[in-house]
Amino acid sequence: MDPLYKTYKHPKSGMLLLSEPFLKDVYFSRSVVLLAEHNKEGTVGLILNKPIDVKLNTLLEDFPSFEARVYLGGPVKPNNLFYLHTLGNQIENSVKVKENLYFGGDVERIKELILLRKITPADIKFFVGYSGWMPNQLNDELKESSWLIVDYKNHNLMQNTPYNLWKNILRRMGDEYYTWSIAPIDPQLN
Do 83 and 70 touch, CB atoms closer than 8 A? Predict the structure, then answer.
């Protein structure tokens, strides 16, 4: 097992949820969800490996031209845009998720930084909708073994290719999860 990845029983902000390989869900099949917030009021996460074929400027009027990939963040509030970034205190009202990774903040400041060319697609990821769980809802799904909770160190989530993220993380976690990474989507086809 790669010492940079470790499984846990209890989720915390900044950790990842990896769906079990046979989860039959349009949104969450083979997904990697970053937990942006987790507290007694519930959980907010963003799916990191589901890019969608839409341009940022077609989603938002009056947004400066910016060639950033847009992701499906989850089924909650699909008409809203959310974002992760590495800009920390440059973006007022952003929430620290993990070292050098922040959630949300002042969108007007983001627009300003784009216009000033002080932000690149490597600094920010945009998401349509988010993944949300009511209090104890995620715990129930964890009891059903729908998710694997993973903490990571020195993994730059902003730089990764989304298409193989789920598989690559599982492979780095050792033999126990390698089998998950190669499992067919439909086990009856095996």
Answer: no
